[in-house]
Amino acid sequence: MRVLVTGAGGMVGRAVVDYCAAQGDQVLAHDRHSLDIADAAAVCATFERERPQVIINCAAWTDVDGCELNPQRAYEANALGPENLAAHGRRVGASLVTISTDFVFDGVKDGFYTQRDDPNPKSVYAAAKLDGERRAQAANARTSVVRTGWVFGVGGRNFLSLVIERARRGERLKAISDAYGTPTYAKDLAARLRRLAELDLPGVYHVVNSGEGASFEEFARAALAAAVCDPAVIESVRMDSLSRPAPRPRNSRLRCLLSPAIGLEPLPHWTVALKDFAAAGARSEATA
Ligand SMILES: NC(=O)c1ccc[n+]([C@@H]2O[C@H](COP(=O)([O-])OP(=O)(O)OC[C@H]3O[C@@H](n4cnc5c(N)ncnc54)[C@H](OP(=O)(O)O)[C@@H]3O)[C@@H](O)[C@H]2O)c1
Fold first, then answer.
1. Whole-model pTM over 0.70
2. Distance 9 CA to ligand 1 centre (A)
């Protein structure tokens, strides 16, 4: 496939570029500097020149608190961006796979959110992402929206990398005990994004690793165990005790109704993925 990847400098973007290249795809990788997805003219010119068959959108402004304080920038990157990619993709005959978030749900439900649940975003970030889903679907029928959960991966400055890094320095860590999500490994997500691109079956998918999900605290403890760090550095805190500009859902665990219906295998359990993540981290340290 001739795949154009946006947000290629980010955590998921890097995993997608590596995975697609390993599958033998012709990969057109763009970070924010080579393609700002909010810039419609730049998107148009890039697509005309590079003629992708498939676009995998990994670009987003993911600073949830930053979005709350700067809604215009959030809207441009997370709502207009996917619409630009969908509309200009359509002009050159390309399909779009665009990533969205578990935060589109309000978190009041117990159990898993599926495609049968109505989104009800509570933050500017989440509202812009939902707007992006809908704009993209309206601009190009060949759009697959992939909502994912708490993503961890090699190379990104994500919650888990920070946890492990700080534990190794012996620093104490606060981890929320009463917010629940579905941990998702960037490498597994990348493989599923490519598979969905290949299938070209438009819809809204929920893509997360298997398991019952976890609280941030359980997730952090499991990561420290996988990285052979002392979990005693973790201090358990309640979500309400942190004052942050943007609200987060108390529960944003996802489950997909469509994936099993079209014969897609469940992704590995998140604890298995964590072991791969910890081993990959150790390998990259050994070669650094
Ligand atoms: N990380 C999670 O836990 C999580 C959970 C649910 C959903 N998601 C979704 O997963 C996707 C990938 O996120 P990620 O974790 O890989 O985040 P990330 O590491 O922050 O990567 C996002 C990339 O997008 C780039 N970007 C920002 N604005 C852009 C623009 N206007 N045009 C082009 N590129 C732009 C960023 O560049 P700069 O860094 O230079 O700004 C960054 O390299 C996003 O759609 C996100 O909403 C992530």
1. yes
2. 9
Question: Rg of the Cα trace of the chain?
Answer: 18
Cβ–ligand 1 distance for 249 under 6 Å, the answer no
Determine the residue of 39, 56, 62 to mutate for testing ligand 1's pocket, defined as the one with the most ligand atoms within 8 A of the Cβ atom. 62
- 12 C-alpha to center of ligand 1: Å? 8
Residues designated as active site: 125
Query: 210-250: per-residue pLDDT in tens?
Result: 999 999 999 999 988 888 888 888 999 999 898 899 999 99
Cα–Cα distance, 238 to 253 (Å, whole number):
18
Q: How far apart are CA 207 and CA 189, in angstroms?
A: 7
Instruction: Tell me, using a 6 A CB cutoff, whether residue 121 lines ligand 1.
Output: no
Which tokens sit at 74?
């959030």
Give the pLDDT confidence of 164-173 residue by residue, as tens digits.
888 888 888 8
Both tokens of residue 38? 């909010």
CA distance 288 to 271: 26
Q: Is 148 in the pocket of ligand 1 (CB under 6 A)?
A: yes
Distance of alpha carbon 251 from alpha carbon 243, whole angstroms: 18
59 lines ligand 1 (CB under 6 A): yes
